[in-house]
């Protein structure tokens, strides 16, 4: 989804976002850790080689790289070794009793400020949430230091383990157009003109316009208007459906050399019987732009609905 | 390097203005202008360049394999081109190795970013592992806050000393014409700025800025034929911390110590305190203090005293007032090379330590020894 914005004190920019869905494969240690949190148990792992217990559980030892030995249940109490407070709350490092490494987690300060050296104990979400956040965080505690050694847990039944976590990232952006694309889109939006830039060295006209000719690496310095007619350099009839498609297959994806330009423009060819596309179209077929109605234009290359063959 | 007969030199470099938002240009406009300036200063034509190495972040750029889209405007058309998804100083390490290995004589290293186009903490969140660290809220500010808290807890250093470090950085950046919208602050003003991640304030955490930097490196034979003063790479090193903050040694940057140790060893066992100045990266004032200590410029917890020592620390202002993520370390190299080659008035130093860092909570470190 993209949108052009222009504010009074902001340069025009392209607002867009990347939506990134994932299924994250947990591996054994993470899946056991998350499953056991659902029972109110915090598990770590013990490296026999380093004789060191770390939490959360890991498949491999970060120190020696060896396989972790036993998966162990650790005490839910410990001491804060570091803390930072942000607008979103406090996060700290907690050294659980009997463990040899800190755990990074949320510090719950709703019952009062927590300082380094303070005793804390685990608090759990009312229902398992399927992530490390089933362990909600650590709150102040009057508990004594536990001397109970971490103890090995029973093997968790494979069918109880979540192998994957459904996860997604949404990354918003506001991309500057810059002087070249800015001018291109201005001309497109205001009067349907298509601009390129000319290289003073090789004389090529580059569409879209750019600051430097890629081949000569000299400044282009001059805008040149090209025509909205041209010839097919290559094309492909797309039958496959995929994420991000803006048209419904079948459609023709084409490289078009506009009259007056030296480079190829990627666009669509339509206005033909798609079933006969490969008979009607050929390399070199002359085409012309079919523009959208003025009310539908927004100053992008999408203002050209498609290209159609020019009848001979 | 001591193991090779041929050395590598920085022969020219260029830096764009470092601005909170370059909203009138695209990445490619910023990059091409900077590359052109570096080439003009070197006397080389793009066709003399054997290899282009570029450093940026796909997540910050908002497109995958973003170098493919920027390639032409970087001068890399039909050239050997490589992307290093790390700070530009790691790209410079690649370039030096490439030249020492005989695979290139002239290398162009580019680093850039436009953090103003996205939500910067999203970039840092994507670095955090998605099972154990990201859901808990780990990002740049939280990592820096925890590191700062560990540093203050584990040493005699004070919040006031960190504020002095930040105030000094801003004051020097205010005098650096390449850093936009920077003004001098007092330690009091630093401490009074809004707390972002305690004990760090808005002004003691690094400020992301947009910018691009380009550096030309050549073999010794070529460097000696050019008119400019070659700045020799006499040592370099790199190392990485565990991705888990909890696996790191609290209050110090061990990977930075390792990287600095390598660089100084290659430079003939040079002492950190024998360098003229240091240009270091940091995401906060506490990080900068820990880097100063890791380089060997001060004992643990004593970084504040090093700022009054013989080695000038961050004459450019450093990374706190201007952090063009992914380019920050290469900007340090540009600043250092500029001073060493006599392009900065009043600078007579003949050697510098240059440092870069990347990742969450300064996970990766690269250190260069430069001499003229
Ligand atoms: Zn081990
Ligand atoms: Zn040209």
Count of runs of 4 or more consecutive helical residues of chain B: 13
CATH architecture of chain B: 3-Layer(aba) Sandwich
Number of DSSP strands of chain A?
A: 20
Tally of individual domains of chain A: 2
Helix/strand-derived class of chain A?
Answer: mainly beta
What is the makeup of the main sheet of chain B? 10 strands, mixed
Distinct compounds present: zinc ion
Approximate helicity band of chain A = under 10%
Q: How much is the average pLDDT of chain A?
A: 93
The number of distinct structural domains of chain B comes to 1
Could you state the oligomeric state of the chains shown?
Answer: heterodimer
Please tell me about this protein's structure.
- The complex is a heterodimer of chains A (312) and B (372).
- With 312 residues, chain A is mostly beta strands.
- Chain A has two domains: 27-162, no CATH class; 177-309, Beta Barrel (OB fold (Dihydrolipoamide Acetyltransferase, E2P)), CATH 2.40.50.
- Chain A is 9% helix and 41% strand.
- Chain A contains three helices and 20 strands.
- Chain A has helices at residues 27-37, 178-191, 277-280, and strands at 3-5, 13-25, 42-47, 52-54, 71-74, 77-86, 89-96, 103-107, 119-124, 135-140, 151-152, 164-176, 194-198, 205-206, 222-226, 229-238, 251-258, 264-269, 286-291, 304-309.
- A five-stranded antiparallel beta sheet of chain A has the order 8-7-6-9-10, with no helix packed on it. Chain A has a five-stranded antiparallel beta sheet with strand order 18-17-16-19-20. Chain A has a four-stranded antiparallel beta sheet with strand order 4-3-5-11, with helices on one face.
- In chain A, strand 6 and strand 7 form a beta hairpin.
- Chain A is elongated and about 90 Å long.
- Chain A starts with a strand and ends with a strand.
- The relative contact order of chain A is 0.12.
- Chain B is α/β, with parallel strands linked by helices and 372 residues long.
- Chain B has one domain: Thiolase/Chalcone synthase (Peroxisomal Thiolase, Chain A, domain 1, 3-Layer(aba) Sandwich), CATH 3.40.47.10.
- Chain B is built from 13 helices and twelve strands.
- Chain B has helices at residues 27-42, 58-61, 66-70, 88-100, 120-127, 140-154, 159-174, 187-192, 220-225, 254-266, 285-295, 303-306, 328-340; strands at 8-15, 51-55, 80-84, 106-113, 195-197, 200-201, 211-219, 231-240, 277-279, 312-313, 351-358, 364-371.
- Chain B has a ten-stranded mixed beta sheet, with helices on both faces. Chain B has a two-stranded antiparallel sheet with strand order 5-6.
- Chain B is globular.
- The two termini of chain B are 14 Å apart.
- In chain B, 66% of the residues are buried.
- The mean pLDDT of chain B is 96.
- Chains A and B meet through strand 2, strand 6, strand 7, strand 8 and strand 12 of A and helix 1, helix 6 and strand 5 of B.
